[in-house]
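Q: I'm writing up a methods section and want to include an example of the input and output format. Could you take the sequence below and give the corresponding predicted structure tokens, formatted cleanly so I can copy it straight into the document?
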Amino acid sequence: MHVSDSRELVDEARAALAEHLARINSLMLATVGADGMPHASYAPFVRDADGALCIFVSDLSEHTGNLRRCPNASLLLIEDEQDAREPFARRRLSLRARASIIPRDDERWEGLADAFQQRFGRIVEVFRGLGDFRLVRLEPTGGSFVMGFGRAFELAGTRLDKLAHIDEAAVQRRVGEKPAP
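A: Here is the clean output for your methods example:
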């Protein structure tokens, strides 16, 4: 692939990633339980001004306790099955993230709660009044975005704005193999 072709592919991926983030309302969340076992769940999300994903979750949920004990999480934002042309190549964003609780007296809390209410409706009014609901900020530390077969990108940067196409050479570097001649 020529450099200009690669640049065009990265530009296409950047636009597709922005559209994907705007379209998806919920993320799949993987946390680590007290017993060291993985726990999968989901939560609706909004993004904050820095691009982090924020969730509004109850202390009664297993994932909230898990994030308090171990702030490392894995996130998956995946295209709906009914919208996918090919089930094996669904558009998806996989992120590694670090969680932190946003206290109610933090200046960001009201604005984020307002963003949740605007996006998800009146139910958020109820959550805002419940003492067990927490705003959790999931700050991405890296990840990947897959647009389809042969169209996968590694993400880096504080806003995940650095994209690199994952080609055969990149895969071989990951697994420690030498590229084929």
